[in-house]
From TrEMBL:
Keywords: Isomerase, tRNA processing. Its EC number is 5.4.99.12. This is tRNA pseudouridine synthase A. InterPro entries: PsdUridine_synth_cat_dom_sf, PsdUridine_synth_TruA, PsdUridine_synth_TruA_a/b_dom, PsdUridine_synth_TruA_C, TruA/RsuA/RluB/E/F_N.
Length: 266
């Protein structure tokens, strides 16, 4: 029995999230079907981080066990031949059976790409977030500084979140901009359900001038989702990196981070 780990990227606009569903319209469902075609036997695929409906992955990591003996190229080119246009395997490695795509990861990085102009960008519909009113970059940078570190993120947690604890450690939380493009980037040991989209929604609230940057700290202290703004749209959210110990000999030493999203990337 071999354990194979895959690098996967996908556009979430055409899927109802990662996790398998009876109707089969998820990334896990279509990837499993393609891998099974190459393996010739049923198997189960597990990922580094489950994404919601409409959320994309520039870097997703998944693994499965199989008795099939195939060259690594078969798990890339062969599987891709059976995948829809919105999903692709980018690399494959064989690892020991003590590797786990989710539990072996030390951290994950998410990016939210936001287009800030009066009219939405129809050419990038479903690929980027959008906000119509001008946003103050300096205010959002000051606001995001308040959420760095280890906190109880109950104010940014979805009501249906099943995590046992609302405490998470944000090692990195940044906002940058080029022209009318804003990029929000977060790296943490783990995330709560809708945590990134709720943080972005609150930061946009600060950026448009409705609240001061210090309001982010007040939201954290309240530990109550009712006081935070609505959850922001999933369109611009990307799983952009997964960090593993070097010992697994994965691409880039295990710190698999997608290139920064900037306008030239679209």
């Amino acid at each position: 029995m071999a354990r194979i780990v895959l690098g996967v990227e996908y556009c979430g606009a055409g899927f109802e999230g990662w996790q398998t569903q009876p109707h089969g319209r998820t990334v896990q469902d279509c990837l499993t079907a393609a891998v099974v075609t190459i393996a010739g036997a049923p198997l189960h695929i597990q990922c580094a981080g489950r994404t919601d409906t409409g959320v994309h992955a520039a870097v997703q990591v998944a693994h499965f066990d199989t008795e099939a003996k195939r060259p690594l190229t078969a798990w890339v080119r062969g599987v891709n031949a059976h995948l829809p246009d919105g999903v692709a395997v980018t690399w494959a490695r064989e690892v020991g059976d003590d590797f786990h795509a989710r539990f072996s990861a030390r951290a994950r990085t998410y990016r939210y790409v936001l287009h800030n102009r009066p009219v939405r960008n129809v050419l990038l519909n479903g690929r980027v977030g959008w906000f119509h009113a001008p946003l103050d970059l300096a205010a959002m940078q000051a606001g995001v500084a308040h959420v760095r570190g280890t906190h109880d993120f109950s104010s940014f947690r979805a009501a249906q979140c099943q995590a046992h604890s609302p405490v998470r450690s944000l090692m990195r939380a940044e906002v940058s901009a080029i022209g009318e493009w804003f990029v929000f980037e977060f790296e943490a040991n783990a995330f709560l359900h809708h945590m990134i989209r709720n943080l972005v929604g609150a930061l946009v609230h600060v950026g448009k001038g409705s609240c001061s940057p210090e309001w982010m700290a007040e939201l954290l202290a309240q530990r109550d989702r009712r006081y935070a703004p609505p959850t922001f749209a999933p369109d611009g959210l990307y799983l952009a990196g997964v960090d593993y110990p070097d010992s697994w000999q994965l691409p880039d030493g295990g710190r698999i981070i997608a290139p920064a999203f900037m306008p030239s990337g679209f």
